[in-house]
């Protein structure tokens, strides 16, 4: 059931490439089934039904209904309580996912530093020794290489204005705030090459700073790391 | 009860033969000030509508030479979207819905001859006009208009070397601050008039819902705009004096501005929603000849929604780096606030039960308001749920959601109000068939624009991105097709707008003269002449009952105006 | 409620609405109390204990504000909803403070911290702010 | 001022003269504006302890004297209201001019204080504390100035016995500006 809900609208969504992508889709689809498929359709049907049913007909006057009386007000009160129950379900689902994705960070296998600046993304990979801020780090611009199945922590910071790391296939969005280092996590589960966008307006180049996330199998990742280790990536942005 | 005595008529001292300029431009009559606000608002709506045409063309056909604008460069694109948003909210929705309808309806509907402070009323329009001029001037400064989104987030807006519009950003902020001052002055005038100048016999529960809604909207605006005025002063100092309120490198904090802005931002959307709800209530009850279902519930939910709107603002900032634990509080509050609004919608729909509905143009607009706003409301639940917002924030899903709430408010609400009160405002009837053609063209066109944009938003299209071809996953044929369909629907909708202008002008010149009460409505403005003279009535009316006594049992007529003694 | 011509011959013959002759307490006495409180609040810091200074500074400020509102502005004589508006404005300011404080006030929070190169804001732990983190230590500084 | 005042202004169906109701609404909107700047100041003040060091340079004595000046001008404002209430046009006008004088003294003292501080190098950009100090006190000073202009205009009318009810209304506004200073004083001067 949960699986079916999580996948019910995947035709209208980008592919799910991170471990919590399906959880976020689950919340989206749950809201869709409860609020749109049930409530919205019901209310619009009643609404249009009333218009058609009570159109002006000669000789038929309108009724005098104050709506203050108890039995009249029942029509408003009952949907009211059902809505509250639905809201409780939705809030529980939303907070559960929010807690897992944003609040609680699992133990990382590796850490990546992501630096946003006016109109480019630059990434610092931990390099073969697996630790960040060592001299064997691999700094790249616009290309983030990740290994499938590894839990990553990202340290997101901005050089100048507000940016926002948005990886649609991970269903991930996190604003980069100058003056803060924001930590989050993701865990790729499929291979492939996907877009990274900036989701917070950052000046003229906001729409012109695309980057790519390349999800590789452990072997490809090791090969890339070996290859990239020798020749430093062009024009690397050095984190302080 | 106050002793019932007829106040002396407003002494009709002979107006010295006023020059055209003094009579119209410097008038203190609430009706003329209404028209000033409305024409300014509608002129700016044409400007903002043109902006949306230009950037929609750029969205559908990137890099193309847009007829009427030429090539859209990235900074022009940012300027277009920023000012489209800001103009539509601050210089179209608020002046037309709150200031124009507020000025016209409040005195007439509560049986007063004018606002309590006519000169302050005129001053508020003049400051508003000045703010519009300052905004338009910001387009022609060196570097062009401000391009940092209507939310004016620092540090982008604070430093010219980031936003490359040194003059544009400061003038934009000054224009917004001036507009706030104009609406503070106007708001105090509206609230004091509605509270203090009601006709004898009009208790708090005899006030028509549209007056209540505009007054509650003014109170919400006044209570929420304060911190943003303080924030605007701090941001102007950051821009001009290089102080460091929002500069993270020197001890400031950009998140403080986001909180200051959205503490104002969310009550602001309810400020523009409530008057449109009021207009819809008036039209629905009149055209279905039905008493408003549960008047007290509508009133209490409006006040409830207003108060709750001060507790939800950070749902705009879920992923903006606020403390994740705070997001849980705001998710819960956002879903709680959806309850009173849903109840209000149920009450409006319940009002139609047992009615005899005439589907003329005003009623079509009012019903389409409910239909469209329901879509806007339900899609808000996706964004209020913090779990889903991680993905949906700043996508076209958000954009389609708030257009499904703003469009019914600003466009459908305005057309509904104007088509309903046009006979009273001008003394001429509007052509109903032309009205319906214009209605269906606009309604279908609007849905054609934003239903596809919901889907592009789910597929990962992000807002404010100048050219989607830079992102391979957003350049797929389906997304391209949806964007082109949206732009074509916009052109389809824009093609229908001249019909409305033609209808207004021809009705003004050669329309059928309108009787005092063309829709057989109960409220007091329909007891004055059309158009009402200065001072509205020879003797101010006295009120005996509520505004919605339609089809009361054992009465010959199916309406019972408020000022008819028995 | 009736608006018959009040005694003062101003145009606005709405008169005083509620009470005709507003009872004028001895203003000079209240003024003297205010001055005494001012002197105490200035003397506060000399005692040296930080808590006492805070108490005298802000406690007295609230008492002084109350005296001015009650006696000079006749808030109790005016219709009671005026007090509701003023208190609502204060509650909204407190709501704003409660919502914004956790982000703005702290040098680091859950999942983010200020890097070393941010000048003027670097220190290890924020002193003694953990407890009031949700609502911030501020006591809603606004004035009636 | 023989403007044709509409009947609407003379009604008080809310149980209060229109002028006083409007002034209370002005005060409500001002509370929210000053609340915004003070809330931001307090957040920054509690976030950075560097503030306390910077705040040490403010001169408490001048602040205390200014508080005394404003409290006294509040007294004269309410005395003006009492005089107006008893129909004493001359007395009301004189008390109003006394209040305006109090406001002028406040501004002059503040001018000296600011020039002294700026000469010592504490300008608005020297640190966020000083930015808040000048912004908050500056907004307050501009309200004092606006109050003085209004009060002199009303004092001229009151002297001729016209629009006496406005003496009370401008007094209300003046008390509010005084209360803002009652809170600004400890925030900027005492909490060191």
Topology:
The complex is a heterotetramer of chains A (240), B (566), C (144) and D (192).
Chain A: H1 2-7, H2 21-53, H3 70-103, E1 110-117, E2 120-125, E3 138-141, E4 143-147, E5 152-158, E6 163-167, E7 172-176, E8 181-186, E9 192-198, E10 211-216, H4 218-230
Parallel strand pairs in A: 1-5, 4-10
Antiparallel strand pairs in A: 1-2, 2-3, 5-8, 6-7, 6-9, 9-10
Chain C: H1 27-47, H2 50-72, H3 80-104, E1 108-109, E2 112-113
Helix pairs in contact in C: 1-2
Chain D: H1 7-10, H2 18-47, H3 50-55, H4 60-85, H5 89-119, H6 128-159, H7 165-190
Short description:
The complex is a heterotetramer of chains A (240), B (566), C (144) and D (192). Chain A is of the alpha+beta class and 240 residues long.
Q: Could you state the CATH homologous superfamily of the largest domain in chain A?
A: Cupredoxins -  blue copper proteins
Distance between the termini of chain A: 49 Å
CATH topology of chain D: Four Helix Bundle (Hemerythrin (Met), subunit A)
Q: Which stretches of chain A are low in confidence, meaning pLDDT under 50 for 5 or more residues running? A: 231-240
Give the proportion of residues in helices of chain D.
over 70%
What fraction strand of chain A?
15-25%
Query: Rg of chain D from C-alpha positions?
Result: 19 Å
The secondary structure category of chain D is mainly alpha
Counting DSSP H or I runs of 4 or more residues, the number of helices of chain D is 7
Spatial arrangement of strands, main beta sheet of chain A: 3-2-1-5-8
Compressed to H and E, one letter per element, the order of chain D equals HHHHHHH
Helix-strand string of chain A: HHHEEEEEEEEEEH
CATH-level-2 architecture of the largest domain in chain A = Sandwich
Describe the structure.
The complex is a heterotetramer of chains A (240), B (566), C (144) and D (192). Chain A is an alpha+beta fold and 240 residues long. Chain A is built from 4 helices and 10 strands, in the order H-H-H-E-E-E-E-E-E-E-E-E-E-H. Chain A has 2 domains: 102 residues, no CATH class; 121 residues, Cupredoxins -  blue copper proteins (Immunoglobulin-like, Sandwich), CATH 2.60.40. In chain A, a hairpin with a 2-residue loop joins strand 1 and strand 2. Chain A is elongated and about 90 Å long. The N terminus of chain B is likely disordered. Chain B is built from 15 helices and no strands. Chain C folds into 2 domains: 56 residues; 53 residues, no CATH class. Chain C contains 3 helices and 2 strands, in the order H-H-H-E-E. Chain D has 192 residues and is mainly α. Chain D has one domain: Up-down Bundle (Four Helix Bundle (Hemerythrin (Met), subunit A)). Helices cover 81% and strands 0% of the residues of chain D. The mean pLDDT of chain D is 88. Strand 8 of chain A pairs antiparallel with strand 2 of chain C.
């Amino acid at each position: 059931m949960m699986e079916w809900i999580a996948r019910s609208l995947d035709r209208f969504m980008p592919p799910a490439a991170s471990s919590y992508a399906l959880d976020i889709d689950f919340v989206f689809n749950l809201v869709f089934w409860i609020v749109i498929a049930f409530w919205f359709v019901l209310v619009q049907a009643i609404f249009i039904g009333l218009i058609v049913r009570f159109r002006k007909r000669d000789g038929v006057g309108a009724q005098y209904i104050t709506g203050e009386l108890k039995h009249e007000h029942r029509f408003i009160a009952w949907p009211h309580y059902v809505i509250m129950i639905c809201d409780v379900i939705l809030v529980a689902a939303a907070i559960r996912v929010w807690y897992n994705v944003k609040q609680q960070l699992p133990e990382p296998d590796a850490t990546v530093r992501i630096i946003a600046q006016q109109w480019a993304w630059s990434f610092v990979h931990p390099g073969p020794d697996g630790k960040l801020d060592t001299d064997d780090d691999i700094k790249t611009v616009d290309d983030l290489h990740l290994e499938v199945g590894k839990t990553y922590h990202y340290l997101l910071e901005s050089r100048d204005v507000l940016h926002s790391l948005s990886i649609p296939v991970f269903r991930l969005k996190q604003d980069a705030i100058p003056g803060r280092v924001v930590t989050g996590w993701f865990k790729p589960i499929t291979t492939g090459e996907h877009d990274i966008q900036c989701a917070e307006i950052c000046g003229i180049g906001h729409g012109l700073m695309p980057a790519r996330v390349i999800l590789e199998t452990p072997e490809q990742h090791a090969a890339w790391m070996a290859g990239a280790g020798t020749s430093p990536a062009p024009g690397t942005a050095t984190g302080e | 009860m106050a002793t019932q005595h007829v106040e002396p008529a407003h002494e009709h001292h002979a107006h010295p033969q006023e020059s055209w300029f003094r009579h119209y431009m410097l008038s203190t009559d609430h009706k003329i000030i209404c028209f000033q606000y409305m024409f300014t608002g509608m002129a700016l709506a044409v400007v903002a509508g043109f902006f949306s045409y230009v950037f929609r063309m750029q969205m559908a056909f990137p890099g193309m030479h847009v007829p009427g604008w030429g090539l859209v460069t990235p900074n022009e694109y940012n300027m277009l979207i920023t000012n489209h948003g800001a103009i539509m909210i601050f210089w179209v929705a608020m002046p037309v819905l709150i200031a124009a309808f507020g000025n016209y309806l409040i005195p007439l509907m509560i049986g007063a001859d004018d606002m309590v402070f006519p000169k302050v009323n005129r001053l508020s329009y003049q400051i508003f006009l000045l703010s519009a001029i300052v905004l338009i001037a910001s387009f022609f400064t060196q570097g062009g208009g401000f391009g940092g989104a209507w939310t004016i987030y620092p540090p982008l807006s604070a430093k010219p070397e980031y936003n490359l519009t040194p003059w544009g950003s400061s003038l934009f902020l000054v224009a917004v601050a001036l507009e706030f001052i104009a609406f503070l002055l106007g708001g105090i005038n509206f609230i004091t008039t509605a509270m203090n100048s009601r006709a004898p016999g009009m208790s708090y529960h005899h006030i028509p819902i549209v007056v209540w809604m505009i007054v509650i909207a003014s109170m919400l605006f006044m209570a929420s705009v304060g911190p943003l005025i303080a924030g605007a002063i701090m941001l102007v100092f950051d821009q001009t004096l290089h102080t460091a309120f929002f500069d993270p490198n020197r001890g400031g904090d950009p998140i403080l501005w986001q909180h200051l802005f959205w503490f104002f931002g969310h009550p602001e959307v309810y400020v523009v929603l409530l008057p449109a709800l009021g207009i819809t209530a008036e039209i629905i009850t009149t055209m279905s000849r039905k008493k408003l279902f549960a008047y007290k519930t509508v009133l209490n939910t409006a006040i409830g929604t207003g108060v709750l709107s001060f507790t939800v603002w950070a749902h705009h900032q879920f992923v903006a780096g606020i403390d994740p634990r705070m997001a849980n509080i705001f998710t819960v509050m956002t879903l709680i606030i959806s309850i009173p609004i849903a109840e209000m919608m149920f009450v409006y729909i319940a009002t139609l039960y047992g009615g005899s509905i005439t589907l003329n143009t005003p009623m079509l607009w009012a019903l389409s308001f409910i239909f469209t706003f329901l879509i806007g409301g339900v899609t808000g639940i996706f964004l209020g749920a913090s779990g889903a917002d991680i993905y949906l924030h700043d996508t076209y899903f958000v954009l389609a959601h708030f257009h499904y709430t703003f469009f019914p408010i600003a466009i459908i609400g305005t057309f509904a109000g104007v088509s309903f009160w046009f006979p009273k405002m001008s003394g001429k009837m509007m052509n109903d068939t032309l009205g319906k053609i214009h209605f269906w063209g606009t309604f279908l066109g609007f849905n054609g624009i934003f239903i596809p944009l919901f889907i592009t938003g789910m597929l990962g299209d992000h807002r404010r991105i100048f050219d989607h071809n830079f992102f391979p996953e957003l350049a797929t044929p389906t997304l391209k097709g949806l964007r082109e369909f949206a732009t074509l629907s916009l052109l389809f909708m824009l093609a229908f707008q001249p019909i409305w202008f033609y209808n207004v002008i021809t009705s003004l010149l050669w329309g059928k003269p309108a009787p005092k009460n063309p829709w057989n409505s109960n409220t007091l403005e329909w007891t004055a002449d059309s158009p009402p003279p200065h001072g509205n009535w020879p003797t101010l009316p006295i009120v005996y009952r509520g505004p919605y006594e339609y089809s009361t049992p054992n009465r010959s007529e199916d309406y019972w105006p408020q000022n008819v003694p028995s | 409620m009736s608006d018959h011509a009040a005694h003062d011959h101003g145009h606005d013959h709405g008169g005083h609405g509620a009470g005709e002759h507003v009872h004028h307490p001895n203003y000079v006495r209240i003024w003297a109390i205010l001055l005494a409180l001012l002197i105490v609040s200035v003397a506060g810091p000399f005692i040296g204990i930080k808590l006492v200074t805070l108490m005298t500074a802000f406690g007295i400020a609230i008492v002084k504000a109350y005296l001015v509102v009650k006696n000079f502005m006749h808030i109790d004589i005016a219709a009671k909803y005026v007090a509701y508006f003023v208190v609502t404005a204060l509650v909204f300011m407190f709501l704003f403070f409660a919502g914004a404080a956790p982000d703005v006030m702290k040098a680091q929070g859950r999942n983010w911290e200020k890097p070393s190169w941010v000048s003027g804001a670097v220190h290890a732990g924020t002193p003694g702010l953990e407890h009031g983190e949700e609502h911030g230590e501020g006591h809603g500084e606004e004035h009636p | 001022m023989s403007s044709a005042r509409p009947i609407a202004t003379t009604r008080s169906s809310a149980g209060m003269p229109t002028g006083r109701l409007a002034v209370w609404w002005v005060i409500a909107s001002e509370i929210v504006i000053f609340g915004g700047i003070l809330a931001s100041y307090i957040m920054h003040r509690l976030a950075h302890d560097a503030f306390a060091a910077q705040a040490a340079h403010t001169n408490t004595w001048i602040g205390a004297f200014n508080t005394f000046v404003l409290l006294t001008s509040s007294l004269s404002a309410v005395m003006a209201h009492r005089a107006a209430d008893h129909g004493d046009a001359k007395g009301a006008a004189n008390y109003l001019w006394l209040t305006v004088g109090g406001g002028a003294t406040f501004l002059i003292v503040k001018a000296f204080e600011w020039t002294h501080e700026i000469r010592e190098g504490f300008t608005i950009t020297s640190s966020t504390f000083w930015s808040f100090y000048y912004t908050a006190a500056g907004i307050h000073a501009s309200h004092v100035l606006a109050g003085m202009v209004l009060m002199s205009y009303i004092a001229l009318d009151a002297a001729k016995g016209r629009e006496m009810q406005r003496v009370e209304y401008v007094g209300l506004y003046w008390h509010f500006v005084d209360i803002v200073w009652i809170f600004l004083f400890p925030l900027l001067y005492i909490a060191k």
